[in-house]
Amino acid sequence: MPNFKEAFETGQNAVRKIEEQRQEVKDVFSELNKQIGDLIGGKLKIVLNAFMDTRTLVPVERFCIDAFNPESEERITLAGWEQ
Q1: Is the dihedral of CA 24, 82, 44, 42 positive or negative?
Q2: 5-14: string of b/e by CB count within 10 Å (b at 16+)?
């Protein structure tokens, strides 16, 4: 007989782990920007962007790492990937 309680707990643990990993990534980018900002006076920010690309038959989650000067609108994509 299926153990629904165990399956639910397994799912909840997986969600918690994903949230912890996402926070870790945010913390890394925050520290990166702090250290770069200290070196060059805040003229460069590096950010991780995530979005759903719905232009395909099946929506795809895409990610990119962009660099930009906060005083400018121009962004440069350093890396991109999909999951």
Answers
A1: negative
A2: eeeeeeeeee
Tokens of 59: 């929506």
CA distance 27 to 60: 25
Whether the Cβ atoms of residue 80 and residue 64 lie closer than 8 Å to each other:
yes
Cα-Cα-Cα-Cα torsion 27, 33, 36, 37, nearest 10 degrees, comes to: -130
Taking the domains of the chain in order of start, what are their residue ranges? Answer: 4-82
pTM of the model: 0.74
**Residues for the chain: how many in total?**
83
Instruction: List per-residue pLDDT tens for the chain, 83 residues long.
Output: 889 999 999 999 999 999 999 999 999 999 999 999 999 998 999 999 988 888 878 888 899 999 999 988 789 999 999 87
Q: Which residues pair with 60 in a beta bridge?
A: 53
